[in-house]
Amino acid sequence: MKKVILFLTILLFSDIVLSQDLKIIKLPEGARVESTTVIDGVTSHNYSSKSKIRVNGIPFLHEEFFPGIIELNDGRKSNEVLLRYNIAKDLFEILRNNDTLSLNRPDAVKYIYLKDKVFFYDPALREKSEKKLNGYFELLIDGNFSLYVKRYKDLSYDSFATNYQGGSGTKEYYYNDKIAFIGKSGNGKVFLMNSSKSFLNNLNDHKTEMKIYIKDQKINFKKEDALINLVEYYNKL
To answer: Are residues 49 and 27 in contact, defined by beta-carbon separation less than 8 angstroms?
Structure first.
């Protein structure tokens, strides 16, 4: 077994200055799990990376842990902690003192800053949608019209193909990556932003200008950059 020792002490909301040399690191083999306080008022549960079934692929946004910051609803922020987003379980994992922990009170957290991304938690942003389409969202644009991303992973099974000669599946499970873009209009209405029709139908104004812009720019509603440009243009009108 590979032995990995991580000398890392994190004291949050203290007068001690945290060293800036936090390194990107993968989960050590045989890492022990213990409950501990990560941020004032927000604790972490024991977490196990073991799964009852083997699944091909990774459940994370990034397999490595990266330095990130947790901001509470009252505005207080943690020092840097090592974080990664487990999309399959829709939770954030924290690496502390060689232990892998999970953030167990997402409702107390306003934002999570990780690399160049900002995440927030809303279990009922889309009231009529199934549970896996709520939870943690990535904030792309916060403005008169806001734009969010919801990432999730469906579990698929490659079964044996009995109807085809010589054809067979791997008989294994694997993750199927999914992404949904969510819009929030000025009147607070939240909707799945997957077409020009869905976008235009939820605008309060400037529909003609936006219809022309979508046509001229050939906006692809499956492309993140295109949707960011679209919403930024609308917010400037």
So the answer is: yes
Q: How far apart are CA 191 and CA 156, in angstroms?
A: 26
List of residues 6+ apart from 206 with CB closer than 8 A? 234, 237
The full length of the chain comes to 237
Task: Count the alpha carbons within 13 Å of 95 in the hemisphere toward its beta carbon.
Answer: 27
Which letter does DSSP use for residue 132 in this model?
G
Task: Tokens for 31, please give them.
Answer: 């890492």
How many CB atoms sit inside 10 A of residue 131's CB?
Answer: 9
Is 50 in contact with 30 (CB distance < 8 Å)? no
78/164 Cα distance (integer angstroms): 57
Give the model confidence (pLDDT) of 105-147 as tens digits: 888 899 999 999 999 999 999 988 888 899 999 999 999 999 9
Q: What is residue 7's three-state secondary structure?
A: coil
pTM exceeds 0.90: no
